[in-house]
């Protein structure tokens, strides 16, 4: 039945003038042809489509057979495979290129997720052949094809380990390698146009579409891929794809240096750049910076010898963008990029003026978020290491300004404690012969000390919540009283001691006594409740401390928490008592 229908519709359409076929003709051709192919009658369909008398019919309608043909080619059914391959090849030669592109892309779009790799590796070469037939009119169609292909590739999982990449368990590597080969003739055409006209046309549609593809590839999948170093994986398809993308970007006339510094140029209001946010997405530029500075990919195409400070300025917004994300890999890449950029900078060299730039204040806040909120311990630890590295690169005045800013904005006791420890180190350095400076001694130091030696809510400050900051503050004060002689008073601490005692030590002592009394009462109450409970495995209950309800705990856990708090108060008390002892002793001499 299907064989007869297929032959009949083709014969009938032979006599239609000007290829003015009706929608019904198309429907019958598609349905009958599909049935023939599905039923294994590929030989009959082949004989019909290659018949010269049917050339005009096949040219107009043949692309409707792509769906059943592709299914056979994917399944590789031996019985029908050879004939279907011949039909497929013939259609590529005679059918309208534009309709073929649409038909091929429909197959890519509609494929099941578990067959994405197979469909892309099967159809990329035919798709390339058809697109090249479009001549000068292919730019927009190429863009449509690349969008479709990338959207399907994005569905594939990314290899996480060396073994997964080597075995290509998800098929992503095969797809990316095929995509690299797919765009090469179009890149070569762009290069020839540049060579022919001795200029780079930013409005060249073909160039624009290839650039869009490269920018999208930098974002996805490359920003989601953790590339392996050549030392650990000599041959890496993912690394090769990243290299191909950067080489392509450069070969079509884009300067990697200009792309890296795109954010700086935008701020200077260079004409035309504000309109190109879509052309140069921020995520793509951040990925490019990471590939250049962390993996040194295509570094030979980066001829400019950048000053370390300029490179840092270029990368700060890229770092900030990556650190503002929640995905662990993005955070790691942000930390890697920041670290690799910072290590090139000489210690104690960054000037204070840089802190007037928004990105140089935003990135530390992003680092604080990473250090305090990221669930991954290794990322938090790395964040702290990079945070310290960034501090080390500022000169003395910049460190001073940075510390004051962070104490004002960090709003995290642990971070504030870390900053105070750095302040102590800078004071210690300034007190050594040959390292004196105006910022961590004398009149400039005192405002910083007042900022450090303060309680946010006076005696009612939550001492446990602010434990890290308070302990580091007390350690700093103890250090100053021991290290700085009263008669020399280089830091000015002895001139300020009375004010410190009144505004910091007394409120702290009051708060400590109040907190200790409260927790001792809670401890006594909890012990009393436990003594009245005969069953040692008492049910979990809640404890409210300072208007905060602790999570459900067993009585034993409650006791441990309360005893731990009292231990912390003892620790604070011992340092406070030592400070009072030193102060009293110095006052008597």
Description:
- With 589 residues, the chain is mainly alpha-helical.
- 68% of the residues lie in helices and 1% in strands.
- The protein contains 26 helices and two strands.
- Strands 1-2 form a two-stranded antiparallel ribbon.
- Helix 11 runs parallel beside helix 13, helix 21 runs antiparallel to helix 22 and helix 25 runs antiparallel to helix 26.
- The longest helix has 39 residues.
- It is elongated, with a radius of gyration of 35 Å.
- This is Glomulin.
Distance between the termini: 117 Å
Query: What composes the largest sheet?
Result: 2 strands, antiparallel
Average per-residue pLDDT, rounded, comes to: 88
Taken as a percent bin, the fraction of beta residues is under 5%
Order of helices and strands: HHHHHHHHHHHHHHHHHHHHHHHHHEEH
GO molecular function, one term: ubiquitin-protein transferase inhibitor activity
InterPro entries: Glomulin/ALF4 (IPR019516), YAP-bd/ALF4/Glomulin (IPR013877)
Protein name: Glomulin
